[in-house]
Amino acid sequence: MSTANLTRTETRRRSRHIDGVKYLVCLDLLRAEDMDVDTFETVTTIEFDATTAATWVDFIGAAVDEVTVNGTDSEVDYDGARIQLVGLTEHNIVRIRARGRYSRSGEGLHRFVDPVDNGVYLYTQYEPADARRVFANFEQPDLKASFTLTVTAPSAWTVLSNRAGVTDDTVTTFAPTLPISTYITAVAAGPYHGVESSWTRGELTVPLGAYCRASLAEHFDAEDIFDITKRGLDFFHDKFDYPYPFGKYDQIFVPEYNLGAMENPGLVTFTESYVFRSAATEAQYEARANTILHEMAHMWFGDLVTMQWWDDLWLKESFADYMGAYASAEATRFADAWVSFANRRKAWAYLQDQLPTTHPIVADITDLEAAKLNFDGITYAKGASVLKQLGAFVGADAFFASSRNYFRTHAFGNTTLTDLLSEMSTASGRDLDTWAAAWLQTTGVSTLSYTGNAIEQTDPRPHRIAVGLYDLNEDGNLTRTHRRELDITEARTPVDFEDAALVLLNDDDLTYAKIRFDERSNATVQAYLDRIVDPLARGLVWSALWNSTRDAELSAREYIDVATKFAPNEPKIGLLSAVTANVAFTLGHYLPDHRRDEPTRQWLNVSWRQLQSSEPGSDAQLVWARAVASAAQLDDFLAEDLLSLLDGTLTITGLRLDPDLRWAFWLALAATGDATSHDLDGELASDDTSSGRTAHTAASTAIPDAAVKARAWAAVTEREDISNDVLDAFITGFGAGHRPDLTAPYDNRYFESISSLWTSRSIEIARRIVVRLFPQQSSTDSADAWLADHEWAPAALRRLVIEQRDHLARSLRVQARLG
Questions:
Q1: How far apart are CA 641 and CA 644, in angstroms?
Q2: Residue 650: per-residue pLDDT
Q3: Which H, E and C letters describe 441-495, residue by residue?
Q4: CA–CA distance from 546 to each of 68, 104, 575 (Å)?
Q5: How far apart are CA 738 and CA 174, in angstroms?
Q6: pLDDT tens across 22-50, in order?
Q7: Positive or negative CA dihedral for 383, 389, 391, 393?
Q8: Which bin fits 557, alpha (ψ -120 to 50), beta or left (φ > 0)?
Q9: β-strand 108-113 against 120-125: which pairing, if any?
Q10: β-bridge mates for residue 99, sequence order
Q11: What are residue 496's phi and psi, to 5 degrees?
Q12: pLDDT for 640 beyond 90
């Protein structure tokens, strides 16, 4: 195993011998604008106490030039991942001068050149363990420290870090941080556009900043971002009763970002896809608000109090996911945020929890590769769902009281599951050991069914659920007439409910479980789904239908029929977006090749009609336009109409053909062979931005030509000079349009190459290739053979292949439902 893959055992051993850590980090980024220079100087001075004569410091970079231990030059003993330190005493000062590499993968210090103005932008991304790509350190969350950073950069640049800084010409010196973990330190530098504000509560004033690339300034709605930010600070200040401790609160939106966002205290980083350069729906604004509040919750759950090791990653991610939805619903204009949570976030959890690689919320994370892959639907969405159930179980007052005690007791420290449960038990007066064993230390999702006189559940667990009884009112709408709340623990729980047209289990979405309908309720749903007035109840029904489809109990064709019938009347844009996305996935994965044409044409027809008939300029019109673009990759039925839209000879009232939508249509046309390279080059000439260039790459690669696919394959598997976003564009285009006649020749090459790719690429880039290029074959034989022949492969790589093999097997099962 590479020494870059730190293990839990060895980091625990190191933390027993190291204490009292402080860092002084000096980065020289003065030549970052010179693309011929791919390294930067990084000098780290680490002050620490030790009870061992030898240990190691983590660093992944181009070279280590000098190591000084307690004033004495030491021989450089560096293997590419670890720097060995010897001759340590009780108190030590170690100075390491090294050269780091600018990143193109979004890991470490990422460098991006804006094609609009040639501006060079830098930012860091470290979680779980990439701070070592920028400066030498003890890369583990339990060795918290104070960090003082000094950055040398072009004088015209904006330079940011976790704390406020003072700039003298080219040198910016930042104030020391409070004790934090290495993975949440941060630096951003470049000609960023910035907007300032502030938030005040009592004697506490927090300076606020919002930043993006200069070429995106015209699209940057900082005031809305500040509005959500201030509402969030109000909410968490009141609920947590622990003042925001990290000084300023900057938020920066950066290009080619691997994540949605990262909770670096004082400098939160976001994907710049949240800077809407094209039209965005209210659901997209809601998603952005949720992310802003998710990251803000981390200031307490994760930054102030941090898990000891990645086993307890849920201690921050599950809580932040839960709090993001909670604060959205309570403190912002997105009062029905729980609808999106129930329909989208939990769908992610249900998917992940049915894989053979599922794991408990409290996972067994033995090393960093395992930690990287555990930023998944279990740790985020299932954990958040379970916390929502815990809140219903112990009550909101006890939940927040325990949180406040947790912060006060463990501020700037590290914790495990036991620490949190102790506070929860004390505040609620309940013994939570049984609850934790049932929910945090097991795997799988229960399925709840109503049989007429009982509620049955698979994988029995204790649930606190509400049951809604719905009937048609005088207006012809389905409304709740009765609500029953009860605890169920066994496989079968007898119940006696009033007669109702629809019995909705898990109404209000209190627990984490899939639901199935009894025969009468199913008939009601099939006839009146759009008559359910409450959006959360309607969202739960849509979710149940999708889960039934994925489980091959409802056929893919039936799901498309239901969507065709009811999606045009769905007023909740978040639900409409989810349904159209599910239909797109169904068309691409859940229909046999010989049964795909008719339902694809059916969906294209309804999407096109809705695009034309929706309220001009509305969110619904935009969602249907995107649905058209997605389905049109599989059928050229609308090719002439789309070309007419793009050249302006056809107009649809209210439809704003902005760059993103134009590229979506061009991708579809390219995939069906109805767009040429000349067409795509012409579009690029009018949108020569970073987004335009990656969209052009995807569309050009979608052209159904063997030589085009060969070039794309080579770019993905052989070139290491392309960025993470460009890599994604090549993969998107390679698989666009479902053309196995062109992609199947690469199936064997995929399995022949993934082992070497895993060892030669960073884990982020390798993961993208392994997951997104996985062959969509007619059997799992190739994957099974690879797994049998590669028992020796790294556990993280095997996990990805096992998961993709399971997704394929599920698709084949769903397809078999149609015959």
A1: 5
A2: 96
A3: CCCCCEEEEECCCEEEECCCCCEEEEEEEEEECCCCCEEEEEEEEEEECCCEEEC
A4: 60, 37, 12
A5: 52
A6: 999 999 999 999 999 999 999 999 999 99
A7: negative
A8: alpha
A9: antiparallel
A10: 41, 63
A11: -135, 95
A12: yes
Angle at alpha carbon of residue 311, lines to 728 and 45, rounded to 5°: 80
pLDDT at 317 exceeding the cut of 90: yes
CA 664 to chain centroid? 22
Give per-residue pLDDT as tens, 764-806: 999 999 999 999 999 999 999 999 999 999 999 999 999 999 9
Distance CA 187, CA 442 (A): 39
Entry pTM: 0.96
pLDDT digit string (tens) for 471-491?
A: 999 999 999 999 999 999 999
Token pair for 207: 């300076």
Q: What value does the CA radius of gyration of the chain take, rounded to a whole number of Å?
A: 27
Distance CA 486, CA 623 (A): 38
CA count, 13 A, side-chain hemisphere, 496: 0
As a whole number of angstroms, the distance between CA 764 and CA 768 comes to 6
Query: Rounded CA gap, 579 and 567, in Å?
Result: 7
Q: Which long-range contacts (CB under 8 A, 24 or more apart) does 641-647 make?
A: 641/608, 642/668, 642/669, 642/674, 643/669, 643/674, 646/683
What are the percentages of helix, strand and coil residues in the chain, rounded to 5? Answer: 45, 20, 30
CA dist 201 and 239 (Å) reads 14
Cβ-proximal residues to 128 (8 Å cutoff; 6+ apart), any chain: 183, 310, 368, 371, 372, 375
Report the alpha-carbon distance of residue 428 to residue 413 in Å, rounded: 24
How many angstroms separate the CA atoms of 87 and 689, rounded?
53
**Virtual CA dihedral for 625, 631, 635, 637, nearest 10 degrees?**
-30
- The full length of the chain comes to 819
Angle in degrees, 0-180, between the axes of helices 314-331 and 383-394, rounded to the nearest 10: 70
Q: 750-759 in b/e burial notation, b at 16+ Cβ within 10 A?
A: bbebbbebbe
159, 178, 222, 290 from 162: Cα distances, Å? 11, 10, 20, 22
Confidence at residue 432, expressed as pLDDT on a 0 to 100 scale: 87
- Mark out the alpha helices in 281-432 (DSSP H runs): 282-298, 314-331, 337-340, 346-353, 368-373, 383-394, 396-410, 417-428
Instruction: For 202, list phi and psi in degrees, rounded to 5.
Output: 60, -125
Asked if residues 188 and 160 have their Cβ atoms less than 8 Å apart, the reply is yes
The residues that are catalytic are 295
Q: What is the pLDDT of residue 390?
A: 85
**Residue 254 · residue 310 · CB < 8 Å:** no
Q: Whole-angstrom Cα distance, residue 789 to residue 382?
A: 33
**Residue 693 token pair:** 């260039």
DSSP 27: E
The DSSP output letter for 17 is: T
Q: Give the DSSP H or E segment for 560.
A: helix 556-566
At 2, phi and psi to the nearest 5?
-60, 145
Please report how many Cα atoms fall inside a 13 Å half-sphere around the Cα of residue 303, on the Cβ side: 25
Q: What is the rounded CA–CA span in Å between residue 556 and residue 550? A: 8
Tokens of 493: 């729980």
Amino acid at 304: L
The CA-atom distances, in angstroms, between 150 and each of 28, 66, 178, 356, 393 are 9, 19, 16, 47, 48
Residue 699: HSE in the Cβ half-sphere, 13 Å Cα cutoff:
30
Q: Please, is 639 exposed, middle or buried when counting C-beta atoms within 10 Å of its C-beta (0-12, 13-18, 19+)?
A: middle
Q: Is 414 exposed, middle or buried (CB count within 10 Å of its CB: 0-12, 13-18, 19+)?
A: buried
Provide the 3-class DSSP secondary structure of residue 131. helix
- pLDDT tens, position by position, 430-456: 888 888 888 999 999 999 999 989 999
SS3 347: helix
